[in-house]
């Protein structure tokens, strides 16, 4: 899309994995493998964990285990850190969509019935989207993290679902231990460790001039939300709002607001598609409400007719 190549591809190797794990015949291996995939290890911790686990299970000579380890850069969190994948680590969401669509479809459907069924699927998804947008707009949260200003700033900024994840990171500030602060040129370097893990120090770079904050854990690069280390720096620097450099538009309430979209020459077609989608979604909602009652239908039809007249007058004005 937009002549860009994807930087990450999620593929389904589930059947192959199940067959291979069945051949391994070790009940504990699945637990080891799952932890190796998802645990928040750094590279050294992952290597130690994998080596120790495989040796304890006597699987060092297993062919599939060795082949899987050889491509660890494609599945282990320790090696994927810093690559943006928007929360997608499995194909379960795509499989969920397929499963949802199957509820509406039958093998005996005609082409007309198929089109109507798919239209019902789209309407259901749009209804879910409207519901989520409503809760994001009117949802309120009682600040409980102790960083009230930052939490309220995040609440105003993010959608409800994303705010839940951001709030977890704000709460995580309480578990961090300050290890040091030093200045290198115009950059301030903060060092933090976590309670119970004093040996694992994470460094955060902060540039006061550009309001840029970068963390060694690379959570923002991977998930698009600031980590607890970044929020801890914000606390020490007395910041009450999340800097613009750390705001990922797709997670915000204004993600679909095309009026605030900055358009360059290379993104005009992309912006046009976004605007088309937004208008189409709004008009679909109008049509859905307008067809319920005769009075609603007449009101919607008059409003759409007035809008058409205004657009024609607008176009004629610019032609002449």
From TrEMBL:
Q: PROSITE patterns, alphabetically? A: ZF_SWIM (PS50966)
Entry's Gene Ontology cellular component terms: nucleus
Presence of keyword Nucleus = yes
Q: Name one GO molecular function term.
A: zinc ion binding
InterPro entries under this entry? Answer: FHY3/FAR1 (IPR031052), Znf_PMZ (IPR006564), Znf_SWIM (IPR007527)
Residues annotated as domain SWIM-type: 200-238
UniProt-annotated location(s): Nucleus
- Keyword Metal-binding on entry: yes
Query: Which SMART domains does the record cross-reference, listed alphabetically?
Result: ZnF_PMZ
Source domain of life is Eukaryota
**Function in brief:** Putative transcription activator involved in regulating light control of development.
Which family does the record assign? Belongs to the FHY3/FAR1 family.
Protein name stated in the entry: Protein FAR1-RELATED SEQUENCE
């Amino acid at each position: 899309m937009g002549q860009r190549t994807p930087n990450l591809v999620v593929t389904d190797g589930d059947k192959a994995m199940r067959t291979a794990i069945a051949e391994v015949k070790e009940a504990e291996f699945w637990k080891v493998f799952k932890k190796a995939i998802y645990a928040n290890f750094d590279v050294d911790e992952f290597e130690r964990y994998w080596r120790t686990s495989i040796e304890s299970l006597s699987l060092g000579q297993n062919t599939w285990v060795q082949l899987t380890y050889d491509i660890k850069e494609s599945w282990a969190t320790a090696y994927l850190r810093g690559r943006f994948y928007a929360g997608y680590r499995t194909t379960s969401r795509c499989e969920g969509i397929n499963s949802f669509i199957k509820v509406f479809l039958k093998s005996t459907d005609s082409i007309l019935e198929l089109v109507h069924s798919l239209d019902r699927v789209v309407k259901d998804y749009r209804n879910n989207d409207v519901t989520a947008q409503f809760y994001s707009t009117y949802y309120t949260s009682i600040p409980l993290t102790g960083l009230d200003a930052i939490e309220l700033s995040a609440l105003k900024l993010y959608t409800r679902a994303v705010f839940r994840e951001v709030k977890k990171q704000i709460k995580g500030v309480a578990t961090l231990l300050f290890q040091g602060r030093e200045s290198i040129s115009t950059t301030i370097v903060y060092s933090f460790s976590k309670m119970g893990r004093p040996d694992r120090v994470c460094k955060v770079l902060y540039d006061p001039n550009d309001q840029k904050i970068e963390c060694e854990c690379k959570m923002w690069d991977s998930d698009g939300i600031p980590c607890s280390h970044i929020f801890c720096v914000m606390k020490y620097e007395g910041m009450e709002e999340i800097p613009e450099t750390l705001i990922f538009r797709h997670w915000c309430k204004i993600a679909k607001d095309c009026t605030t979209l900055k358009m360059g020459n290379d993104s005009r077609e992309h912006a046009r598609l976004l605007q088309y989608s937004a208008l189409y979604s709004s008009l679909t909602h109008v049509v859905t409400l307008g067809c319920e009652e005769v009075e609603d239908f007449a009101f919607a039809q008059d409003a759409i007719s007035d809008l058409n007249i205004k657009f024609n007058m607008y176009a004629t004005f610019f032609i002449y």
